[in-house]
Design brief:
Elements (H helix, E strand, L loop, with lengths): L19 E10 L3 H12 L5 E4 L8 H4 L3 E2 L8 H8 L1 H24 L7 E9 L2 H17 L5 E4 H7 L7 E10 L2 H14 L3 E3 L6 E3 L2 E4 L2 E10 L10 E13 L2 H7 L6 E5 L3 E7 L4 E8 L13 H15 L5 E12 L5 E3 L4 E5 L4 H15 L7 H7 L2
Parallel strand pairs: 1-2, 1-10, 2-7, 4-12, 10-17
Antiparallel strand pairs: 3-6, 4-6, 5-6, 8-9, 9-10, 11-14, 11-15, 12-13, 13-14, 16-17
The protein binds flavin-adenine dinucleotide.
Flavin-adenine dinucleotide binds next to helix 1, helix 2, strand 3, strand 11 and strand 15.
């Protein structure tokens, strides 16, 4: 088994680091989805003088280690809590904003011809315990209240028509999501931004920022505004880091995919009380399964491969498929999650920060709000993020 990320791209040619003293109206530290899309939405607002500095290479953080399942849902909390906190109207706006972002991303990939193994697939939430079924039913009512199209309950035969696994008898068809190779996706967005004049410096960590000057190892950037989008490195009392592990099998044969009813490559998630699985079929027909537990890990050393997680994934693959299909790749990644119900955005005159959205669509949605707020323009999520800052 290769103990490394399945997406890694040894042929990737990184941009040169920043050397010397530069200026930029907008400087973004961090080249994950949050930083890349902060640049994208600033560009969309007519801003031109934008630079990104990335400590390693673009997409080398959570983004490029993820499963690449881009679904308009929340990791930070259930929709019922969002409704209770912000009211049905604002929660509905939040849901629609995420769906809009999903459409924006799909159109960007298609129109720009970004080669990232993109396709649109169904997303199914699986349940295998009484507790999970009760939670799903509670959420069903909440989601239905803010959008009657959402969601569809799947029982027995209907569920087997989506995903055939003896393990699950109850589920929920949530919506269509985008599936991508997340590293190729990040590299494609970088190329798009550069074509539109954004300067991207790789192997350029932000060391410190003071009074409008960002210090990097071999130079400085004098900037009008600095956006910190450094993922698990962002320091904020409302952020926690989590570990999750992914295993990828060999390519499955056509009969194996047919037996699971996964020839159409539906994506799935199985939320337990304190842990969760998620998965999809990759472009080359491998079963990808992720596992995480809900323990924030400030006190636990981060590891490149979490062995108990891998064992759990092996057991899940056995239960899910009925066979022992060996894993060919496994890796553990980290991501940052806000303790609030939304991404953590801190807005200041000269610097701001964005992180902790938990999912890529939620990160991109937060970046769209951040760009609007920095350009002092209204945004459909003003009610959500302004309240979140109180
Ligand atoms: C294993 C795994 C599976 C996941 N699966 C999914 C999924 O299927 N779908 C989904 O929506 N979400 C998934 N996630 C979560 C998702 O990947 C993250 O929520 C999202 O990518 C966070 O984006 P980000 O830009 O905030 O952070 P990152 O992608 O971590 O970006 C931050 C960047 O900042 C850089 N950086 C750090 N410090 C500095 C500095 N000082 N100067 C300059 N640069 C710096 C880092 O190198 C990094 O590239 C998964 C996460 C993991 C770990």
């Amino acid at each position: 088994m290769h103990e490394r990320c399945f997406w890694s791209d040894p042929g990737y040619e990184a941009n040169d680091p920043l050397i010397g003293n530069r200026r930029a109206r907008w400087l973004i530290a961090g080249g994950g989805v949050a930083g890349l899309f902060a640049a994208y939405f600033l560009l969309k607002r007519g801003e031109r003088d934008i630079a990104i500095i990335e400590k390693n290479t673009v997409g080398s953080g959570s983004t490029g280690h993820s499963a690449g399942m881009l679904v308009a849902d929340l990791e930070t909390g259930p929709w019922s809590a969002v409704i209770a906190n912000y009211g049905a109207e604002a929660a509905g706006a939040y849901m629609r904003a995420q769906e809009e972002v999903q459409r924006t991303v799909a159109a960007l990939i298609e129109n720009e011809g970004i080669a990232c193994d993109f396709s649109l697939r169904d997303f199914v939430l699986l349940n295998d315990s009484e507790w999970a079924i009760r939670r799903t039913m509670r959420e069903f009512a909440a989601r239905h209240a803010i959008d009657p199209r959402h969601p569809t309950i799947l029982e027995e035969e209907e569920l087997q028509n989506e995903i055939r696994s003896g393990e699950f008898s109850f589920g929920e068809y949530v919506e269509r999501g985008l599936t991508v190779n997340p590293l190729k996706f990040a590299h494609g967005i970088k190329a798009y931004l550069m074509r539109h004049g954004v300067r991207v410096y790789e192997h350029t960590p932000l060391l410190s920022y003071r009074d409008g000057v960002a210090y990097v190892p071999h130079g400085t950037v004098s900037c009008g505004h600095c956006i910190h989008a450094s993922g698990t490195w962002l320091r904020d009392a409302k952020l926690r880091n989590y570990m999750t592990t992914i295993g990828v099998t060999r390519p499955l044969s056509t009969p194996e995919l047919a037996a699971l009813n996964l020839a159409d490559k539906d994506m799935f998630e199985d939320d337990g009380k304190r842990s969760y699985h998620y998965g999809k079929i990759t472009a080359d027909n491998r079963l990808l399964v992720g596992y995480g537990d809900v323990l924030g890990v400030p006190d636990v050393p981060m590891v490149s491969l979490h062995t108990p997680h891998v064992e759990n994934i092996r057991r899940f693959v056995r239960r899910f498929t009925g066979h022992d299909i060996p894993l060919e790749y496994a890796w553990t990644g980290q991501y940052s999650l806000s303790t609030g119900l939304t991404a953590q955005i801190v807005l200041g005159e000269r610097e701001s920060s964005i992180g902790g959205a938990g999912t890529q669509i939620a990160s991109i949605t937060a970046a769209s709000y951040l760009a609007a707020a920095l350009c002092r323009e209204p945004h459909p999520l003003d009610a959500i993020f302004e309240r979140g800052r109180e």
